[in-house]
Design a protein that fits this description.
The chain is α+β, with helices and mostly antiparallel strands. The protein contains 3 helices and 7 strands; from the N terminus they run βββββαααββ.
Length: 142
């Protein structure tokens, strides 16, 4: 079994009943996005995963990484944090709000979100409620 760290770029298919998904991901060392297949519940664009599985070639869809186990990690760079926050996982924060938040707090964004609620200084975002599992926000737009 091979172990790979990747960032989800697109969710091509996701079965809400059993979680079976087809994902497009960037993987270090590969120029193009690679296809991951397996059971992923609630994985969104921008999510950083460490996956374990094997490469296979599907007759119809081509080369894919068949995932047997995976763990989610928080993104560690500015672009990844923006994608993660703006992916729709965090209610009330789209790509534009995510960009504002990350512009203000940079690599400390997740620490700020989880620990000290300094989001109110960000223009047009007013934090009303916070539930950190792993990072979820509901915001009011002023």
């Amino acid at each position: 079994m091979e172990k790979i760290k990747c960032t989800i770029e697109r969710v091509t298919f996701q079965n809400p009943e059993n979680g079976y998904s087809v994902l497009q991901a960037t993987i270090k060392g590969y120029r193009e996005e690679q296809t991951l297949v397996g059971t992923f519940h609630e994985v969104t664009v921008g999510t950083v995963l460490t996956v374990e599985g094997n490469w296979r070639v599907d007759k119809r869809y081509g080369r894919q990484f068949a995932v047997e186990k995976w763990t989610e990690e928080l993104p560690a760079d500015i672009i990844g944090i923006e994608k993660y926050l703006g992916s729709g996982l965090v209610k009330g924060i789209g790509p534009k709000f995510a960009k504002l938040i990350v512009a203000k707090f940079g690599l400390e964004t997740f620490e700020v979100i989880e620990n000290d609620f300094r989001l109110t200084p960000v223009p047009i975002v007013n934090v009303q409620y916070w539930d950190t599992k792993p990072v979820r926000v509901q915001c009011l737009i002023n």
